[in-house]
Protein backbone atom coordinates (compact mmCIF):
# COMPACT_ATOMS: atom_id res chain seq x y z
CA UNK A 1 0.00 0.00 0.00
CA UNK A 2 0.99 3.67 -0.26
CA UNK A 3 0.86 6.64 2.08
CA UNK A 4 0.31 9.98 0.33
CA UNK A 5 1.86 13.16 1.73
CA UNK A 6 0.83 16.52 0.28
CA UNK A 7 2.94 19.66 0.09
CA UNK A 8 2.97 23.00 -1.67
CA UNK A 9 -0.05 24.69 -0.17
CA UNK A 10 -0.01 28.29 0.94
CA UNK A 11 -1.42 31.77 0.52
CA UNK A 12 -1.76 33.20 -2.97
CA UNK A 13 -3.55 36.16 -4.50
CA UNK A 14 -6.50 35.70 -6.79
CA UNK A 15 -5.32 35.13 -10.33
CA UNK A 16 -2.10 33.55 -9.14
CA UNK A 17 -0.74 30.02 -9.45
CA UNK A 18 0.28 27.25 -7.10
CA UNK A 19 1.52 23.71 -7.60
CA UNK A 20 0.68 20.99 -5.12
CA UNK A 21 2.73 17.82 -4.86
CA UNK A 22 1.80 14.48 -3.41
CA UNK A 23 4.62 12.04 -2.65
CA UNK A 24 3.45 8.51 -2.02
CA UNK A 25 5.66 6.27 0.03
CA UNK A 26 5.26 2.54 -0.35
CA UNK A 27 5.30 0.05 -3.17
CA UNK A 28 3.45 -0.30 -6.47
CA UNK A 29 2.67 3.40 -6.82
CA UNK A 30 2.17 2.94 -10.55
CA UNK A 31 -0.72 0.58 -9.86
CA UNK A 32 -2.72 3.32 -8.15
CA UNK A 33 -5.02 5.85 -9.68
CA UNK A 34 -4.58 9.17 -7.90
CA UNK A 35 -7.08 11.86 -7.10
CA UNK A 36 -7.17 15.34 -5.65
CA UNK A 37 -10.08 16.42 -3.49
CA UNK A 38 -10.74 19.56 -1.49
CA UNK A 39 -12.82 20.56 1.48
CA UNK A 40 -13.78 24.09 2.39
CA UNK A 41 -15.02 25.02 5.88
CA UNK A 42 -18.59 23.86 6.41
CA UNK A 43 -18.68 21.99 3.11
CA UNK A 44 -18.34 18.38 2.08
CA UNK A 45 -15.19 17.01 0.51
CA UNK A 46 -15.42 17.43 -3.25
CA UNK A 47 -13.67 15.92 -6.25
CA UNK A 48 -11.10 18.10 -8.03
CA UNK A 49 -9.07 15.91 -10.40
CA UNK A 50 -8.26 12.29 -11.27
CA UNK A 51 -5.40 10.61 -13.09
CA UNK A 52 -5.16 6.95 -13.97
CA UNK A 53 -2.17 4.70 -13.25
CA UNK A 54 -0.30 5.57 -16.45
CA UNK A 55 -1.19 9.24 -16.61
CA UNK A 56 -2.99 8.69 -19.87
CA UNK A 57 -6.45 9.57 -18.63
CA UNK A 58 -7.53 12.51 -16.55
CA UNK A 59 -10.82 13.95 -15.32
CA UNK A 60 -11.59 17.31 -13.75
CA UNK A 61 -14.41 18.92 -11.86
CA UNK A 62 -16.21 21.48 -13.99
CA UNK A 63 -15.24 24.20 -11.53
CA UNK A 64 -11.51 23.73 -12.21
CA UNK A 65 -11.51 22.55 -15.82
CA UNK A 66 -9.15 24.66 -17.93
CA UNK A 67 -7.41 26.09 -14.85
CA UNK A 68 -6.00 23.02 -13.05
CA UNK A 69 -3.79 20.27 -14.44
CA UNK A 70 -3.10 16.93 -12.79
CA UNK A 71 0.01 14.96 -13.72
CA UNK A 72 2.17 12.20 -12.28
CA UNK A 73 5.73 10.96 -12.34
CA UNK A 74 5.77 7.25 -11.51
CA UNK A 75 9.56 7.21 -11.31
CA UNK A 76 9.31 9.69 -8.42
CA UNK A 77 6.12 8.25 -6.86
CA UNK A 78 4.63 11.73 -7.10
CA UNK A 79 1.46 13.31 -8.42
CA UNK A 80 1.07 17.04 -9.02
CA UNK A 81 -1.76 19.53 -9.23
CA UNK A 82 -0.89 22.69 -11.15
CA UNK A 83 -3.42 25.39 -10.25
CA UNK A 84 -3.66 28.55 -12.36
CA UNK A 85 -6.02 31.52 -12.35
CA UNK A 86 -6.90 30.83 -8.74
CA UNK A 87 -10.12 32.20 -7.31
CA UNK A 88 -11.22 32.85 -3.76
CA UNK A 89 -13.64 29.93 -4.06
CA UNK A 90 -10.64 27.60 -4.52
CA UNK A 91 -9.74 28.18 -0.88
CA UNK A 92 -9.83 24.81 0.88
CA UNK A 93 -7.79 22.01 2.33
CA UNK A 94 -6.58 19.90 -0.58
CA UNK A 95 -6.23 16.16 -0.17
CA UNK A 96 -4.39 13.60 -2.25
CA UNK A 97 -5.80 10.08 -2.44
CA UNK A 98 -4.75 6.74 -3.92
CA UNK A 99 -7.08 4.08 -5.28
CA UNK A 100 -5.80 0.70 -6.44
CA UNK A 101 -6.53 0.20 -10.15
CA UNK A 102 -9.51 2.56 -9.98
CA UNK A 103 -10.98 3.65 -13.30
CA UNK A 104 -12.62 7.05 -13.42
CA UNK A 105 -12.85 7.34 -9.65
CA UNK A 106 -14.64 10.59 -8.84
CA UNK A 107 -15.94 9.94 -5.32
CA UNK A 108 -14.01 9.76 -2.02
CA UNK A 109 -15.15 6.24 -1.17
CA UNK A 110 -13.35 4.87 -4.24
CA UNK A 111 -9.95 5.70 -2.70
CA UNK A 112 -8.26 3.62 -0.02
CA UNK A 113 -5.38 5.85 1.08
CA UNK A 114 -5.46 9.53 1.97
CA UNK A 115 -2.98 12.20 2.89
CA UNK A 116 -3.41 14.66 5.73
CA UNK A 117 -4.14 17.59 3.45
CA UNK A 118 -2.53 20.93 2.64
CA UNK A 119 -4.18 24.32 3.04
CA UNK A 120 -4.65 26.57 0.01
CA UNK A 121 -5.88 30.08 0.69
CA UNK A 122 -6.66 32.47 -2.15
CA UNK A 123 -6.99 36.10 -1.18
CA UNK A 124 -9.18 38.40 -3.25
Structure, described:
The chain is mainly β. It is built from no helices and 11 strands. Strands 2, 4, 5, 6, 9, 10 and 11 form a 7-stranded mixed β-sheet that branches. Strand 4 and strand 5 form a beta hairpin. It is globular. The protein starts with a strand and ends with a strand.
Structural features:
124 residues; mainly beta; four-stranded antiparallel beta sheet; 52% strand
SSE arrangement:
Layout: E1 2-7, E2 10-13, E3 18-26, E4 32-39, E5 46-51, E6 58-60, E7 68-73, E8 78-83, E9 92-100, E10 113-114, E11 118-123
Parallel strand pairs: 2-11
Antiparallel strand pairs: 1-3, 3-8, 4-5, 4-9, 5-6, 7-8, 9-10, 9-11
Give a brief outline of the structure.
The protein has 124 residues and is mostly beta strands.
Secondary structure class reads mainly beta
Major sheet characteristics: 7 strands, mixed
User: Care to count the β-strands?
Assistant: 11
- The helix tally amounts to 0
Radius of gyration: 13 Å
Q: Which percent range describes the beta-strand content?
A: over 45%
Q: What spatial form do the alpha-carbon principal axes imply?
A: globular
Counting copies of identical and different chains, the oligomeric state is single chain
User: Helicity, in percent?
Assistant: under 10%
Low-confidence stretches are: none
End-to-end distance, in Å? 40 Å
Amino acid sequence: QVQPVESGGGLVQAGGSLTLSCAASGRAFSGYAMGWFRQAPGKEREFVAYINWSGGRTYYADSVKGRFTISRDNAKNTVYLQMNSLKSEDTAVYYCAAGWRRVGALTPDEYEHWGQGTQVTVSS
